[in-house]
User: Fold this.
Amino acid sequence: MNAIINTIKVQELSEAIRIGYRQCLRDRGELPRCITQSEAERLYTGSLLKKWRRAGLIEPVKTGDSRNNKVLFDTQRLDVLYTSTITQRPKR
Assistant:
C-alpha cells in the first residue's frame, strides 16, 4: 500500500515539474503559447480534445471570422489537462 502511494506521489511530482519546465520554456519564447487544432490533435489525440471541449475544460480561439481561419489552443491549459488525464488514480 505504501509503495503504491509513494509511486503516485512521485508521478504527480514529476508531472508538476514537467508542466513548470514547459511553462518556463514558453516564458522564454522557446515554446509557443498557442498551437493550432491540427497540432493539438497530433500531440494530444483528437478524442481527448473532443472530450475536453464537450466538458467545457478548453475553449479554442479562432483567429478571425472567416471559415478558413486558424483555431488555436492554449498550450499551458492542454499540458495541465493532459497531465491530469494520465495521472488519474485507478478506480477501485
User: Anything to note?
Assistant: Strands lie at 34-36, 61-62, 71-74. Residues 2-86 form one domain.
